[in-house]
Amino acid sequence: MAVTAQQAMDRWGGGVCPFEAGWRKVMMWTFIITDGLLFAGFLGGYGYARIMSVQWPEQETVFNIRLIALMTFVLISSSATMASAVGSSKASGPARDATGRWLLLTALGGLCFLGLQAYEWTHVIEEGARLYQNPWGDPLFGSYFFLMTGFHGTHVLLGVVVLVTAAIRWSKGLTSPEGVELAGLYWHFVDLVWVFIFTLFYLV
Amino acid sequence: MAGHSESFATSRLYWGTWLALLALTMLMLAIDSSPLPRAAFLTLIVSAMIGKAALIGANFMHLRFERWVLPVMVVVGLLINGLILFALIAPDAVRIGAMRP
């Protein structure tokens, strides 16, 4: 069905939002795309180093895959609690009251993830890995490991701060359901990035 | 009542997605520990990764409920830029690897 000039104006002329979403959500998505490209750059650089490397370390000799699987489980579970927080914030009645609890539970998941990551980093550093060298093979391995997981961990830490702030503001009635949704988008993005890091760095 | 059933439906979607993500992660770990040929291993593991990413994007980030231009903007923006990035640098990496004595 052809779109009339008036309909096009309604959609694109500023009268009606073309995405049918608030500007804050569109801005959050724009941020997610740009931040996603940043991680894509990291993963691209990692792929480059990996392909041209003569002796890339075997993951099984460096990492405890069970620990990494546990970290993945924690992050996936925190994503589910975050989605529940978003769902609760839009519901009515007792379900709505649970929003703050879901947010705090998600933040707790983020803290658990960070604790496990700190444990992993400690182990890898004790084994002799640094940004510029490691005992297992290509020196670039340490650079990519610390930069990629560190950059992701920083995102998780920021996410925890955002979630706790959102929970406090929600309890005071200062945050709207859209605010919770935006915090959720960021948190799910952090989970999404981990899917790629987990697969491409730890498994492949 | 409608609000209650809607809330139940979204809860089921979220926790169903969580279960699917968990199952895919277990599958990936099983693939990782299987003695598969490299090509089969890569195909399976990358497929599972894309499946997980799609589940998170569609169900947790609600892209399936948004107006179509938003998911198109996100997916095309990330996919095309990502592919260009890899397509441009991968041949160079292979070339440098081949130049080693």
Give a brief description.
Chain A is mostly helical. Chain A has 8 helices and no strands.
Describe this protein's structure.
The complex is a heterodimer of chains A (204) and B (101). Chain A has helices at 5-12, 23-52, 59-62, 65-90, 94-97, 99-126, 140-171, 177-203. Chain A is mostly helical. Chain A has one domain (14-203): Cytochrome c oxidase, subunit III, four-helix bundle (Four Helix Bundle (Hemerythrin (Met), subunit A)). In chain A, 38% of the residues are buried. Chain B has 101 residues and is an all-alpha fold. The mean pLDDT of chain B is 87. The radius of gyration of chain B is 19 Å and the shape is flat. Chain B has helices spanning 2-32, 38-60, 69-99. Chain B contains three helices and no strands. Chain B folds into two domains: 1-64; 66-101. Chain B starts with a helix and ends with a helix. Chains A and B meet through helix 2, helix 4 and helix 8 of A and helix 1, helix 2 and helix 3 of B.
Which descriptors would you attach to this protein?
heterodimer; A: 204 residues; mainly alpha; Four Helix Bundle (Hemerythrin (Met), subunit A); 78% helix; B: 101 residues; 2 domains; 3 helices; 84% helix
Structural class of chain B: mainly alpha
The Cα radius of gyration of chain A reads 21 Å
**If you consult CATH, what is the topology of chain A?**
Four Helix Bundle (Hemerythrin (Met), subunit A)
Number of strands of chain B: 0
Shape of chain A: flat
Supply the number of structural domains of chain A: 1
Could you name the CATH class of chain A? Mainly Alpha
Name the biggest interface: A-B, 53 and 49 residues
SS summary, helix count of chain A: 8
Give the tally of structural domains of chain B.
2
* Main sheet overview of chain A: none
Separation of termini of chain B? 73 Å
Write the layout of secondary structure elements.
The complex is a heterodimer of chains A (204) and B (101).
Chain A (H helix, E strand, L loop, with lengths): L4 H8 L10 H30 L6 H4 L2 H26 L3 H4 L1 H28 L13 H32 L5 H27 L1
Helix pairs in contact in A: 2-7, 2-8, 4-6, 4-8, 6-7, 7-8
Chain B lengths: L1 H31 L5 H23 L8 H31 L2
